[in-house]
Structures are given as C-alpha cells and as structure tokens.
Design brief:
The complex is a heterodimer of chains A (319) and B (523). In chain A, α5 packs antiparallel against α6, α5 packs across α8 and α6 crosses α8. Chain A is built from 13 helices and no strands. Chain A is 80% helix and 0% strand. In chain B, a hairpin with a 2-residue loop joins β6 and β7. The longest helix of chain B has 21 residues. Chain B is globular and about 70 Å long. Classes of the chains: A mainly alpha (319), B alpha+beta (523).
Chain lengths: 319, 523
C-alpha cells in the first residue's frame, strides 16, 4: 500500500512539471498582450514605446528565460507580480484561495450529503413516485446551467424578499455567520450539477450492485435491506461514484469562475478570468497552475481511496 | 495685441461661466452616512499616472484633484488653481490654492505640481514594474515654479486645449512630491480630493472615508463611500433593488423597464460623450473605402433611429464627432437630422454604390468588441447594410484581441465608442493629429485618404482661444467629416444610472465615470 501511494505521488511530479510548460505556453498563444488589453482600441501605442514597455516587463526576454523566471518565482514562494498593477501575486493568491476553497468544499459537501442518499433511495425504490421525483430532480440539475440559476435566484430573492447575499466578502474566521450567509447561495447553486451527477451515478451503480449474486446471498442469509445496502452494496458502488465525483470536484473550480463573478466573490476563478482578459500572464499562470494542481491531487487522492476500497488494486500493484 | 484681446475675451467668457455656475449650489445637503456604489469592473490600479483604461479612473477620482475641474454643467472651474492667465498665447500662469493639504497631512505647493507634471508626461519613468503608457496630454515645452504657489507652463504652439487637459482630472492628477517613492502607487492614494482611501481589495471593494481637510470646507457630505465591484449586470440591478448597494450604472433602458415603477428607485439618464462610431482602414488597393461614395452609402444605409430603439431602448441621439451636448461645439440635433448623410436612405445608398462600381454591393469584415451592447449594434447594423448589398461578416473579439487589431490595423471596419476627450478637438484628432495607427492605415498608405484643408482647420481650432471662433471651426470640421464619411457616426447613447431614492444630488456627468459621487448625500 505504501509503495503504491509513493509511486502515485512520484508520478504527480512530472505531471505537474509538464503542465507548467503547457500553462506557460498556452497563455502566450492567445492573440494580443497586456499592452493591447490596456489600449483596448482607444489608444494606439507606437512600436518604440511598446518595445520599451515589453522590455521593462521582461516580455521581450527569450521564452526559456521567462519560463525559468516563473519557476524561480514559484519555488521561492513569491509567485511573481501582476503585469497590470505590480501587485505581489502571493498576496493576491492567498487572499483569493480561501474564497474558492470554501465555495468548492461547501458545494462538494452539499452535493454528497444530498446526492448519495437520494441515489440510494431512488435505487432501492425503483419506479416509485419518489424515484420519479429524484430522477426528475437529477435531470433538472444536469440541464440548468448554474449561471442561469444564479441569476434567476438573485432576481427572485431581490424581487420578493428585498434580499441578496452579502456582496462584500467577509472571511470565515472574522464573521462565521456572515460568511455562511454570503456563501450558502452560491455554493448551493454550484453544487446542483455535482449533486445531480452524484445522485444519478449512485442510483445506477446501486441498481447494478443490488442485482449481484452476493446481494441475493446476503438477503437469503436474512440480513436486512439496510445492512445489505450499507455494508455490502455501498462499498462496491462507491468506486465509480468516487471517480465521477472527484473528476467533477475539479470542475467545481471552473464553475466557480462564473459563480464568483455573479456573486461578486473575490476568488481564484474571478482573478483567473480577469487575468486572462488583461493578458496578465503571471496571474493566469498561477491561477491555472493552482487549478491544475487541484485536479492532480484530487485524482491522486481518488487513486489512494481506490486502493482502500478495492483490494484488487492493491493486489495488482503488489504483483 | 489682437490675440491677447481674444484671450482676454475667452477668459472673461470662462469667468462668466465660473461666476454663473458657482451660483448653483447644493440645497440643504445632509451630512453623514455611507454610500455603497456598484461598479462593473475591477479598478486594477490606483496609480495616478499612465493609461490604465476603464475602471482604474473610478478607483482614483474620489481621492485626487487637478488644477481645474468640470462642474455639473461641464464648465471649467477652479480647483487646485484658483485662477490663471495667459500673458501670451503660449504661456499659462496658474495661481495655486493656499492652505490645501494632502491626505497624509503634507501641504500642497508648486513643487507637487512640478512633480506631477513631470510624471504625467512620462509615467513609465516612474514605475517600470507595471505596464502603463502616456496618453492624451497636449505637448508642453516647459514648466516651472515661479514661487511656492505659482506655476508657469509654456506650450510649443498656442494651445487652447491645455485647460481641458487639467479639467479632465482623471488624467491630470496632482499628487504629492515623491509619491512613487513614499507610497505603493497601485494600492495607495495621496491626493487632495474629498475622500481618503481606506482599503482596496482587488476584485472586491474600494473603501474611502471623508477627507475632513478637503479644501471645499462644506464638502464632502457623506462619511464613507464603498465601491463594490460586481461584474454581472443582473446582480448589480438585483443589488440596487434589494438595497445592498445604493446605485449603479446600467447598459440599456430595456434592462431597467421593470424598475420604472419601483418607488424605492430613481432612474437618472443623460448624455455623455460616448459616441458610437464605425472606423475603417484603407489597405491594399484602398478599395472600397477610398471612394467617398462608398463611405457615404454606408452612412446612409444605417437606420440610426432603428438602432437607437433596438439597442438603447430609444435613449440615444444623433451625433457628429462632437456630441451636441458639448457646450457650443456640437452640431444641433436639428442640424444633424437634416444632414442627408445621417438620414436613412437605402435607395440613395444603392445608387451611390452602383456609381462607385459596386452595383451588387461587396463583402466586408466587421470587427466588434465582445460585449452584449456592441454585439447588438453589430446585428442591427449588419441587417441595415445587407439591405443595400453590403455583406458585413461579424468578427467578435475580446478586448486584448480588439486592441491588437486596432494597433496593427488588421481590420477592415469596426465599431466602438469614442469617449470623452480633453477638448472637443480631441474628438477630431483623427483628422488633424492622428496617433500612429490611424496614420499608418488611413493617411499614409499610397491609396489612403488625405484632406489638407481639414488639417489646417484642425490646427487652427486647437490654437484658437476665442470660444465662438473655435465653435464655428469645430462645427465646420464636423460637417466636412460627416460629408466625407471618413468615419461613420452612429448615435450617442444616454448614460443610465439606477439609484436608491435616498441618494440626492446625483447628476449625469458629461465627462462620464462617477464624478457625482464626490458631492452626493443621503436623505
């Protein structure tokens, strides 16, 4: 088991390294640069001045030098500075991180605590009224884009209750109640899709497991349905659920790009988008690298969880 | 002597305006409270100098002043300079206000103006770490402090636009000496304005508190202002409706129809100088734009009334290069309505195209910024042009892509907004003193376009101090530009603000941005 985990961790190193190259190059392939973004079709900047600015910002250095400087900034923990306003990115990143992590965790939590039980209920009572309702809910969750739902809910609450979630971000550790009031609506909206996917996947895999011979044997032994589901079927059904849920967890981050904008929350997603529009390469690189790392580490944790849930994986590795 | 008389008459005219306008004082203002204002874009930086387009100005305009300022009627008023004089046509003497303090408590004097002038001319010299470039500043030959409270500025040629530059205070900020050494320019403010910066949290909020030492002793009225950054317009409107913010700007009259009968909300609209305009580039053999008839046909193909109704909910007016609301310099609505080149006349447009050798029309790439409003303009105008045979293929580009194409001239035609400038002549500089990009893709090309008469008229308008003579010149240039259809002017949409009824003393600032926040109070 230890070897398996160690090997999986080792594999993440070249993965992340490769991704730094991709992130670094991709952002530079976008047409236009920070100067074009600033001029925005209103002011034309002549070549001499453009060269001077690019020199000063280090954007005329050979690409390998720029990449090396970026890696140096990352390893020093400094993360570089914004091209637009010279703000230290470490400060910007550390301020934005809790916002995005909080929305992500609350959303994942809501998705799991509702998605998995609803899927089990639906699977254990197939083709009943409750199953129909749960499936319908799943379909709605999958079909409605979260930005549309967010706008609609804001319209509804402002129109009928003269209320919208607090717009000025309050950190959790400063005012937990105020923070949760602010975070709950965006998190619920962001969780809808994941909840629907988790629910549908739980239902499908549970239905599959409940048809297996070992379930029939367990039932024949006289075990209650509750024990059969929780002790036997659930553990086997969890592997595909975990796979889907973990992949989707990464997508929560991309969803948060829009949700943060709609609710005015200063998180990673908003900075990423702003950086992209401004062609502020260091901002985009660091925010994209963070998202990439989240994907990699979530997958790593999923693989480790597999080994725990499915002894065959451990066995294969040992072989 | 003749010139000096003209200058004196101009100064008298301005002084009259000053005296007249200063009579308009706020009635029964109330003091105290906090105003929360929703803004669409992140200020990015609060650095006083250099071009950081868009919201950056909103972040700093509450904290800084310049030598002069615009009042609510767009007249130039004294600010950090109490008065000024022109001993000759190239020399400006500004007498500075005494007893003014910066937010850090230091005294304002001529050396601060010298420091600021030095760096507004070359912002890159100050801050190499962040991208910023110089902008619209008129050429200045020299400047010096005559004493602690008197500044002398000499321009290379007679230049009537200099006062407008200082009144356009978001570009001509006066900060304290050595500001860039003592402060972090992107995150701090040290000005003489009505509000002191408390905190700036990127992508979240900018918070200011009242400057108790503000040189207008009765202002500001509110204790605190928070600019809340809310990029999504639907959220901003919901926030105003729920009372979470006191007000915000909105993009279209159609969006706020449901708020019209809301007793808690007031809608204030008025014109600014955000003219929507087609710009074209001349490439290759110069076709089709080098033929005046083609450009005129395009102008006549556009149904401006339809455009105003469909995109701006009817809240947009006809415009030439200088909006009609800009003092005595714009062409009147009546004159614009009667101008045949601004009238919707598809039959004439077809005839003009046929006579220019395009009886079947032609195909053109039409670049737009990716923005709901411009995309709507593109769709409406595309249909208008199609009726006369011009097939405009929409090419939507986000800001940086748009800026890149504008810079290198790799477009055939685009639509955008031309915002406020330091002076009405700033709206005409494409025809007199173009920046490099239009010069390269419009004037210099072998098959490009040139009009020496227009350039002469422009130079004269810049150097003429007499208001009425300038006005006539500027109007004449506009008539010629509209007839030549060198750019095709579409409409000038109104600015729309939705506000809580508690907000008093708000007005539509012709100069744009949120200058009225400096003088609002809460009921």
């Amino acid at each position: 088991m230890k070897d398996y985990i160690f090997k999986r961790i080792l594999l993440t190193i070249p993965t992340i390294f490769g991704l730094t190259v991709i992130v670094f190059l991709l952002v530079r392939l976008l047409p236009g640069d920070v100067i074009d973004a600033m001029s925005g079709g209103e002011v034309a900047i002549d070549e001499g001045r453009r060269k001077m600015i690019m020199d000063r910002l280090g954007l005329n250095d050979p690409i390998i030098v720029q990449y090396g400087n970026w890696l140096k900034d990352i390893f020093s923990g400094d993360l570089g500075v914004s091209l637009r306003n010279a703000q230290p990115l470490r400060e910007v990143f550390l301020r934005a991180l809790p916002v995005t992590l909080e929305i992500g965790f609350i959303s994942a939590f809501i998705a799991c605590i509702f998605g998995i039980p609803l899927g089990i209920i639906s699977a254990t009572k197939p083709n009943t009224l409750i199953d129909v309702f749960v499936r319908l809910f799943g379909l709605i969750g999958l079909s409605f884009p979260n930005f549309w739902l967010a706008t609609l809910l804001l319209l509804f609450t402002s129109l009928h209750f003269n209320w919208i979630p607090g717009l000025t971000y309050v950190p959790l550790w400063e005012n937990p109640i105020g923070n949760l009031k602010q975070m709950i609506l965006p998190s619920v909206i962001l969780s809808f899709q994941l909840m629907a996917i988790t629910m549908r996947m739980t239902r499908a895999t549970m239905l599959e497991e409940l048809k297996q011979d070992y379930i029939r044997t367990a039932r024949a032994k006289g075990l209650s349905m509750k024990i059969v589901v929780n002790k036997h079927a659930m553990k086997n059904a969890m592997i595909p659920i975990l796979t889907i849920a973990s992949v989707q967890l990464g997508y929560l981050l991309s969803g948060s790009v829009i949700i943060e904008q709609i609710f005015g929350l200063p998180g990673i997603g908003w900075f990423f988008l702003q950086g992209l529009l401004d062609r502020d390469y260091p901002v985009v690189q660091i925010m994209a690298l963070f998202m990439v790392c989240v994907f990699v580490f979530v997958n790593l944790l999923t693989d480790i969880a597999y080994a725990y849930l499915d002894p065959r994986i451990k066995y294969d590795m040992e072989q | 002597m003749k010139h000096c008389k003209k200058i004196i008459s101009s100064i008298l005219a301005i002084s009259f305006v000053v005296i007249f306008s200063s009579e308009i004082v706020a009635k029964n203002p109330k003091y105290g409270g906090e105003v929360v204002w929703g803004i669409a874009a992140e200020p990015t930086s609060l650095a006083p100098f250099g071009i950081l387009l868009g919201a950056a100005h909103i972040g700093k305009q509450l904290g800084y002043d310049s030598l002069v300022e615009y009042d609510r009627n767009s007249n130039i008023q004294p600010a950090l300079a109490t008065h000024w004089e022109n001993p000759d046509e190239r020399t400006w003497i500004f007498h500075l206000r005494k007893g003014v303090k910066f937010h850090d408590g230091s005294n304002f004097s001529a050396e601060d103006v010298i420091y600021s002038l030095t760096h507004m001319r070359d912002p890159m010299a100050l801050d190499a770490s962040a991208a910023s470039v110089d902008g619209f500043m008129p050429p200045i030959e020299s400047f010096e402090a005559i004493d602690d409270y008197t500044i002398k500025i000499v321009t290379p040629k007679p230049d009537a636009t200099l006062l407008g530059w200082f009144a356009w205070s978001r570009w001509s900020i006066i900060t304290s000496k050595d500001f860039y050494k003592k402060f972090t320019p992107s995150k701090q403010i040290n000005g003489t304005g009505p509000f002191k910066l408390v905190e700036y949290i990127p992508n979240d909020r900018v918070v200011y508190e009242k400057n108790k030492n503000f040189w207008k002793s009765d202002q500001p009225y509110v204790d605190k202002i928070t600019l809340k950054i809310i990029p999504d317009e639907a959220t901003r409107i919901a926030a105003v409706r729920s009372g979470a913010v006191h007000g915000s700007r909105v993009s279209s009259a159609d969006i706020i129809r449901p708020l019209e009968n809301n007793p808690n909300i007031q809608i204030i609209s008025g014109v600014t100088a955000q003219t929507r305009v087609f710009q074209i580039s001349v490439k290759g053999d110069g076709k089709p734009w080098n033929d005046r008839r083609v450009r005129q046909a395009m102008s006549m193909a556009v149904d401006r009334k339809d455009l105003a109704n469909k995109v701006f909910g009817g809240k947009a007016t006809l415009t030439g290069p200088v909006p009609d609301s800009w003092g005595v310099y714009g062409l009147s609505q009546n004159e614009l309505r009667q101008n045949i080149y601004l009238q919707h006349n598809p039959d004439m447009a077809k005839k003009l195209l046929a006579s220019a050798g395009y009886p079947e029309g032609f195909e053109i790439s039409f670049m737009l910024p990716t923005n709901q409003q411009y995309e709507a303009i593109g769709a409406v105008v595309q249909a208008h042009l199609a009726k006369v045979g011009i097939k405009a293929n929409l090419d939507k580009r986000e800001n940086a892509q748009f800026g890149a194409a504008y810079g290198d001239g790799s477009y055939e035609m685009f639509v955008n907004a031309q915002g406020f400038r330091l002076d009405p002549t700033g709206k005409l500089n494409h025809w007199g003193a173009p920046s490099k990009a239009p010069q390269k893709y419009w004037y210099d090309y072998p098959n490009g376009w040139n009009d020496e008469k227009l350039k002469v008229m422009f130079d004269k308008a810049v150097s003429t101090f007499d208001v009425m003579v300038r006005s006539n010149l500027i109007k004449e240039i506009q008539r010629r530009v509209i007839e030549e259809a060198t750019f095709v002017y579409l409409v000038n949409p109104e600015r729309l603000d939705i506000l809580s009824v508690k907000i008093k003393n708000w007005y539509t600032d012709f100069v744009d941005f949120n200058q009225p926040l400096r003088t609002v109070w809460l009921d």
